Amino acid sequence: METLRERKKQRTRDALLRVAVELFTTRGYEQTTVDDIAAAVDVSQRTFFRYFAGKEDAALALDGLTVARFIEAVRERPPHEAPMEAMRQAVLEGWDSINGIVESVVPVEQFLRMYRVIESTPVLLAAHLRRSAEVEETIARVLAEREGLDVDADPRPRVAVAVFGGVMRMTERRWSTGADFSLDAMRALTVSHLDQAGSALTENWRTH
Amino acid sequence: METLRERKKQRTRDALLRVAVELFTTRGYEQTTVDDIAAAVDVSQRTFFRYFAGKEDAALALDGLTVARFIEAVRERPPHEAPMEAMRQAVLEGWDSINGIVESVVPVEQFLRMYRVIESTPVLLAAHLRRSAEVEETIARVLAEREGLDVDADPRPRVAVAVFGGVMRMTERRWSTGADFSLDAMRALTVSHLDQAGSALTENWRTH
DNA sequence: AAGCTAATGACAGCCACTGACAGTTGACAA
DNA sequence: TTGTCAACTGTCAGTGGCTGTCATTAGCTT
């Protein structure tokens, strides 16, 4: 962030992202055109596409910050932890540190609102899920390395991540459609659902 | 399928689907335009969009048949089975009956090729994953009803489906990128991965 | 055969996105 | 300071997915 040029670029990107999120969360994703965003920042449409790979990319940029943080957190977990526990702690850490990560661009409330937009907009949800799949692949490799396994020969890391990821996406869904849309609620749901994963595999739920 | 009109409509739809799959699997999804498909069937582009909600819809239509079959299979599973077991059996049944379901439109080989296209085309994979999420919601409701639970009050059905779905999507991924692209391989992977889900939750993989 | 209705084709138009090229503006050395 | 280079931007033209509209065609009904 040394030169004036770099600062200018950063400002343009931030402005585009801020405006995009603002419009997406108020007017709605589909009701916002790229031209709208570009016009509001007073740049050409072409410039928007130089900063973001597409409209989707801008909509998922904030979430991307937290994803990157999550991956880092898994990498930094103490090696003695079991894989599931490492992922669980990393995710909880991630939610704790959201504030510091996102706040430099938009207030956390905006981030949360954007999350709802993603979950309620089909095309965004689809893109989000695809990226989650990529993240799962990354995490599987991290875990395999931690445990000294070959990720392609031993399916266990991928299975573990798949189970974890499945529960997490379901948690996101429930959270974003539920009444309590706070970070505390997210933490509570995460812990609760992960704790139930074990019994879900084996138990019969009927009382008799 | 009584009137001539209905038969004609069916034939047009089948022709569009066949041509679409043919082009997608040979030329590639992105390299095929809707105009190409419409031209090959000798209808207007507008007509294509009257039969399919979009290009994606045509690409996922075959998979949609198997999904519908899977949901039915879960519904028909004997009530005494535990939820996980019911889903597992339903999925295996589904693969067994693919032939009879798909063959009336395209040969099974085409179906399998289309599967690879979906997994290797980002936008299609995204759409596929989103639809899988919808399927999971449906299955969660089916299971809840089976077990006499309120799906909104008791998260266990959704947790179980999330775990199952996570493993299944990971299985699809591994299958479609692996060497053995046969139905037998799919069955083997499915069983193997599901069997490992339990230990993935608790175990530590290191040998010491 | 005549009238109704569903299906289609033929436009026109919006929007996301891309390539190409020219103009502008910081960076950096002479 | 100035001149040169490289990076950044705007403009324009074009492609492709998708939609609304309306006139035309073709099957159904009586």
Name its key features:
homodimer, 208 residues, mainly alpha, Arc Repressor Mutant, subunit A, Tetracycline Repressor, domain 2, 9 helices, 77% helix, globular, DNA-binding, HTH_TetR (chains A, B), transcription (chains A, B)
Word description of this protein:
Chains A, B: GO terms for molecular function: DNA-binding transcription factor activity; transcription cis-regulatory region binding. Chains A, B: Residues 33-52 bind DNA. Chains A, B: This is TetR family transcriptional regulator. Chains A, B: It holds the Pfam family TetR_N. Chains A, B: Keywords: DNA-binding, Transcription, Transcription regulation. The structure is a homodimer of 208-residue chains. With 208 residues, chain A is mainly alpha-helical. The first copy, chain A, folds into two domains: 1-52, Arc Repressor Mutant, subunit A (Orthogonal Bundle); 55-202, Tetracycline Repressor, domain 2 (Orthogonal Bundle). Chain A is built from nine helices and no strands. Chain A has helices at residues 4-26, 34-41, 45-51, 55-76, 83-102, 108-120, 122-147, 156-177, 183-202. Chain A binds chain B through residues 82-84, 122, 125-127, 129-130, 133, 136, 147-149, 154-167, 169-170, 173-174, 192-193, 196-206, and chain B through 82-84, 122, 125-127, 129-130, 133, 136, 147-149, 154-167, 169-170, 173-174, 192-193, 196-206. Chain A binds a DNA duplex (30 and 30 nucleotides) through residues 3-5, 8-9, 12, 33-35, 43-47, 49-50, 54-55.
